[in-house]
Each structure stands twice: as structure tokens, then as C-alpha cells.
Amino acid sequence: MKKISLLALAALMMSACCCKDKTVTVNVTNESDLVRKSENVELCLGKLQAALKAGEDAQFVVYNPEGEEIPSQIVSDCKDAKKLLFQVDLDANASAVYSIQVGTPQTYPTQAQTTFMPRRKDDISWENDRSIFRMYGPALATDKTEPLISGGLDIWVKRTPKLVSQQWYQDEFDGKSSYHHDNGEGLDFYSVGKTLGAGGVAPFIDGKLYLVGNNFHTYTILENGPIRTKFRLDYAAYDVAGNPISESRIITLDAGSHLNKVVVLYDNKEDMCVAAGFPFRGFAEKAKTKVDKRGIADCQDIVFNKEAGWIAYGEPNHPENGIIFLGSIMPCGACDMLIAENHVLNCGKAIAGKPFVYYSGGAWSKGGFENIQAWSQYMADYAAKLKQPIKVCTSYCDHQEVACEKESTCEKAPKAACESPCEKTCNK
Question: Which CATH number fits domain 112-386: 2.70.98, 1.10.3430, 1.10.8, 2.40.50?
Fold first, then answer.
């Protein structure tokens, strides 16, 4: 590994003069049999600043193995520790060397973005190059014509990598077209109502699903492109089995991903079961079974792996618009998976005083996924990648240090209160 790294570094030095000044090289290794596309690399900014003798206001430029500049973004973790984020593509069982220098980065096209929409009854809308999502705000709850209280996740589907949601909204406002009809780029034809929608979450206690009792009342956009968008939604307390519980959701969507990372902060005093899910639209059977014995394993539109924590679901085929595929992942495995409360549910445990982390999202039959088999393979691969992240090693041109980081999604002993049992962070 060291020999390969030095050879690649030498090539970089000759082609891009990366070590003319101080340079940090980053060796990324994919030790799995899966191809990794748009894989995130996050490096602690404090370490880069120290290595490159850069000030707190310094900017950085990232170069790929060919010496070409690639998009990067400064982001923060839950403790406000700054990181440098960029994305890499790796073949199975392959390595590549990237380099970082102090400099002024180019202005990159935005691939992930969140927008608050007061003109559309306080929607919060977010989008990347794959999908569009939204959740409902306070104005919709008190709307005089069509009020709706729902903490469910809405999904809009598209077949273009362009960010189009804001134009769709504007065309709707101007009366030019409706985003409920396919305009050649995609549309909104998913129905949320008073459900979990496309992978929302709710406490699930003694067989009862406690949907959030209000729309979000405050929002904070934390990151907004070009690679990652991240925001927080806060919900007022609602009844859960006789106890008032409030919650906040921190939602992250990265370029290239069909799934959101959702960190839910409950103020529960005791551990409780929660479930991410989607409304169940009907039963397409794998085989004839008695009605009272129908279960999740009998439905041909549901594929799941409880141990790996993922579930994939295909909505009924719309004759004009096709199929919306939905999925969720419990990164440390699911407590249960079932059809209950008119939902397809993926269950996990929210530990009192700890964030609850899961992933959810969707795709479209006219946007790259032909059938449930293709979508379930995506979900299986995504879950496997969470359990086996790429290995990231940084070294410096003067060879003072080699620091390797391999983060686990299933840490048993979190180091700080803001960390999830299934998440690790770097210290500032």
C-alpha cells in the first residue's frame, strides 16, 4: 500500500506540481467488492490547517489522481467541528490518490440545495441530482382551504441531474404548468397525507404508530451545497402513549445519493421503539395465502433484509407516471420489519438521551430503476457500504505523518452525547 501510494504521489507531483508548496495527499481505498460512486471523504479541517500551516480563514483546493480540481465543501459535524468534504469514485478493491493544497477553489455547480418556501405555505424543499423531497411547515397547518398536519416525507421524482424544484414551483405560481404533471423532467405524484410518507419516522409502541402531531414550527439550514445540504426541523411536543414528546430532525442529503440521512433527537426519558416507513397501498402477493396470515414476506413489492437493516418497497404502478420506489435503512440492523397501521415499517430503538439515526428516500422507474429488483439491490449495496466505509489515509510531502481513519457506523461506545451509537465524529 505504501509503495503504491508513493508512486501515485510522484505522478501527481510531476503532472500537477502538487508539492511545489506544502501538500497533503489522501489515499482512498475501497476494500469491498462493490463499486463506489460519489463516495464521501471527510477530513478534519484542523488537521489540514496544521499540516499546511494555514490560518483559520484559509481555503483549500482538492485535486483528483489526474491532477484536476474537483468540487469540495467545508461542512460541520454535530459538535461544530469543521471538515473538508469531497467525493471520490472507486472500482471494487481499488485505491486512488488525491491531493489538497491551500488555494482558492473554483465556483462549483450546486448539486444539493435546501429552500424554505413561504409562498408555498412554508414548505421546506430540498433536492440533489437524483431526487426532490419536502416537508410541511406551519402555514399549511392553518391554511383556510386545504389544511394539513403531517410530519410525513414527500418525494418528487425526476429524470434530470439538474436542480429543478424551484423552477417547478415558479411555473406553478405563474400558472405556466403544474408540478403534478410530467413536464419532461419529472413530477410530484406521490400522496403523503397523514402518513409517514416516503420514509418518515414515528414512535411505534405496543402496535400503535404515533404520528407527529404537528408540522415543523422552526427550521435552520445548516449546509447548502455544492455537495451537501443539511438542515434541522423542530416539532412541538405531541402525545406518545400518554407522554408528551418533542423532536427535532437533522436531515442530510449528499450529491449522488437517493437516500437522506436522518438524525432524530427525541426528548424521551426511556428507550422506545420507533419505525420508519411508508403507507402500504395494496397487497400484490408472492403466493396465495390466507388473508389473516398475510405478512411482509408475502408481498412481491417488498424486499428486505432484517439483519442488514434495509427494506425496499415498490408503490403500485401508475399507468402514466410509473412506479415510485421507497426504502429505509437502520444502519445497525432492524428490531423488526412488518406491515402494521397501514404502513410498511422498519423498526429500530431510540435510546433515551441519544440521537436516533436512519436513512430513507426513493427513486423512480423512469429515473434509472426499472423494477423492484434494481431498487432492492441499490438498498442492499447502500447498507453494505455503510457497514464497510472506504479507508482514508492522509500523508504529507515531507512524510512527517501518516494518519489513517476508518470510521465505523456501529460504534459501541459513543465518545460524546451528540454522537449516535451508529455514528462517529472527528474532534475539532
Answer: 2.70.98
